[in-house]
Design goal:
By secondary structure, the protein is α+β, with helices and mostly antiparallel strands. The chain contains eight helices and 13 strands.
């Protein structure tokens, strides 16, 4: 800032503003994805971070003041979330946007507080706070501090949430294939294999399709999962017949339902700092969606959380 008589001139270094905002935006979006346990692309996060950095740079231009009304800021936040995560459902978009805001406030508060603690602030006559010469080392320290605060606070919150509302990461192996999926701990799931009395995890067909042998996939592709004769014919010629089961179940409005299930080589459930391994689990396949918003693709039987 330079004083020429009564006129003040402010010099803005666009490259520094872009770089600082790019770094902050990336860590905010990355933290949002990690804590929401949402799959993300680093390229998409980088593009969204750059879009946000350009938006921040435009705030220094009086010609673009119309872009910074309350509603425009909300719309721009939604745009950044869409670019970063491409959520498939509106409900998921709102959830990710809400988490994006919460984490942004924490990151911003950490950076502002740390700088104030070390250097203090200069206030203009209008009461607007300006931070001059913001050091990169303080920015890095603020990002690290904010992430650890969020990370460990989030773990504590998750432990306080009821079991039936917790979504856990699950690794599943079958033959030489494996996949990761998100599963809801469902206390209402009491389904067990009638032959072995082992607990049953229910998964969406689209979620585990890549694990299932091609000949068994025909049962679902032809929508014959409720046709015992069709299942018997396909299983009779499949080398995996011994690994598959028919699981009877009852539900509201359906007395005699059945699900095709299989026994994977191993299932690992990631419950906070625990890794629960099991080789004695049956996975039942459900052809429709289990979650309306795509938040999870399987239902965990509560007994599966008991370490063997």
């Amino acid at each position: 800032m330079k004083d020429k008589g009564m006129k003040l001139e402010t010099y803005v270094y666009a490259d520094i503003i872009l770089l600082e905002n790019l770094i902050m935006n990336y860590f905010i979006l990355w933290s949002t994805a990690r804590l929401a346990r949402y799959r993300y692309s680093r390229v998409k996060l980088l593009i969204a971070s750059f879009v946000g950095a350009v938006y921040a740079l435009l705030s220094y231009s009086p010609k673009h003041s119309y872009l910074f009304s309350f509603y425009t800021k909300i719309l721009f936040s939604l745009l950044i979330v869409i670019v970063a995560y491409t959520p498939a459902y509106f409900h998921l978009l709102l959830k990710l946007t809400g988490m994006f805001y919460i984490i942004s406030f924490i990151f911003g508060g950490a950076a502002f507080g740390l700088f104030y603690f070390i250097n203090g602030l200069s206030l203009t006559s209008n009461g607007i706070s300006f931070i001059r010469d913001f050091p990169v080392k303080i920015l890095v320290a603020a990002v690290a501090a904010a992430y650890f605060i969020i990370r460990y606070s989030w773990d504590y919150i998750q432990h306080r949430i009821k079991r039936e509302k917790i979504i856990l990461k699950v690794q599943m192996r079958f033959d030489e294939k494996q996949l990761f999926l998100d599963a809801l701990v469902d206390t209402g799931n009491s389904l067990k294999d009638p032959l072995t009395n082992t607990p049953v995890m229910i998964t969406e067909y689209d979620t585990v399709r890549e694990l299932i042998p091609d000949d068994v996939q025909k049962v679902f592709e032809q929508e014959k999962e409720n046709d015992l004769n069709a299942i018997a014919q396909i299983m009779a010629i499949s080398k995996w017949a011994s690994r598959f089961r028919i699981i009877p179940f009852r539900s509201l409005g359906r007395e005699n339902g059945m699900l095709v299930g299989f026994k994977p080589d191993e299932i690992i459930i990631f419950d906070s700092d625990r890794r629960i391994r099991s080789c004695n689990i049956i996975v039942a396949i459900y052809r429709k969606n289990l979650s309306k918003d795509g938040e999870y693709g399987a239902l965990i039987h509560p007994e599966m959380l008991k370490e063997s």
